[in-house]
């Protein structure tokens, strides 16, 4: 009898938490003046702005209003790699473009301690990287965390010529290999990875990796 009551209370609590998460993250109408990725810019404070999101200032809840609430949140790290808190939107549509979006969130030691006390699952990937996921209530607590960077992966293939036509001539080009090159647009706060064998990746930061 006691176990039955505990199960009932647990289920009721799960429903309440889910309802709260839905109310906080339900989609709102897409802004009509929503910008496109090649319209990113550096504002007067030196922060990158893309899709009306300001790196270092806009929060996860702002992004959810834009990209939808269907997202996976996980922390990745290893002995040789600093921990990163990522939010993955596998399929969203921005400015008429179907894409995947990855956010890196800003968090401190206090956040890390709280997250470590609310782990849902921890598993080690074949690469040795640890992937940590969290319970729903913990995800709700992340809604106010600020966005560190935004990675945009369009579903459609973009040729180098098309990218230059949309973004203009890059500030500089770095040839990583015969099939991979980096295009840096310093005034737009973006690095574009062109990979002949994979999808193009647009990385928006406050400071483009040099």
Describe how the helices and strands are arranged.
Elements: H1 2-25, E1 41-42, E2 48-50, E3 53-54, H2 60-67, E4 72-78, E5 81-94, E6 97-105, H3 109-116, E7 119-124, E8 130-134, H4 136-141, E9 147-154, H5 160-167, E10 172-175, E11 180-185, E12 190-195, E13 201-204
Outline the structure in words.
The chain is of the alpha+beta class and 210 residues long. It is built from five helices and 13 strands. It has helices at 2-25, 60-67, 109-116, 136-141, 160-167; strands at 41-42, 48-50, 53-54, 72-78, 81-94, 97-105, 119-124, 130-134, 147-154, 172-175, 180-185, 190-195, 201-204. A ten-stranded antiparallel sheet has the order 7-8-4-5-6-9-13-12-11-10. It has a three-stranded antiparallel sheet with strand order 1-2-3, with no helix packed on it. The chain is globular.
């Amino acid at each position: 009898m006691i176990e039955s009551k505990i199960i009932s209370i647990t289920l009721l609590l799960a429903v309440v938490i889910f309802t709260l998460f839905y109310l906080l993250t339900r989609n709102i109408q897409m802004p009509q003046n929503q910008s496109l990725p090649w319209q990113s810019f550096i504002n007067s404070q030196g922060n990158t702005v893309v899709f009306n999101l300001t790196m270092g200032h806009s929060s996860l809840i702002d992004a959810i209003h834009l990209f939808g609430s269907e997202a996976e949140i996980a922390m990745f790290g290893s002995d040789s790699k600093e921990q990163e808190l990522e939010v993955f939107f596998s399929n969203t549509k921005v400015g008429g473009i179907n894409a995947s979006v990855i956010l890196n969130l800003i968090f401190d030691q206090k956040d890390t301690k709280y997250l470590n006390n609310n782990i849902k699952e921890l598993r080690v990937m074949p690469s040795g990287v640890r992937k940590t996921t969290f319970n729903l209530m913990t995800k709700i607590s992340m809604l106010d965390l600020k966005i560190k960077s935004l990675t945009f992966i369009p579903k459609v293939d973009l040729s180098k010529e098309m990218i230059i036509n949309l973004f203009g001539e890059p500030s500089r080009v770095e040839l990583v290999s015969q099939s991979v090159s980096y295009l840096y647009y310093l005034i737009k706060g973006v690095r574009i990875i062109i990979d002949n064998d994979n999808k193009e990746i647009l990385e928006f930061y406050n400071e483009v990796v040099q």
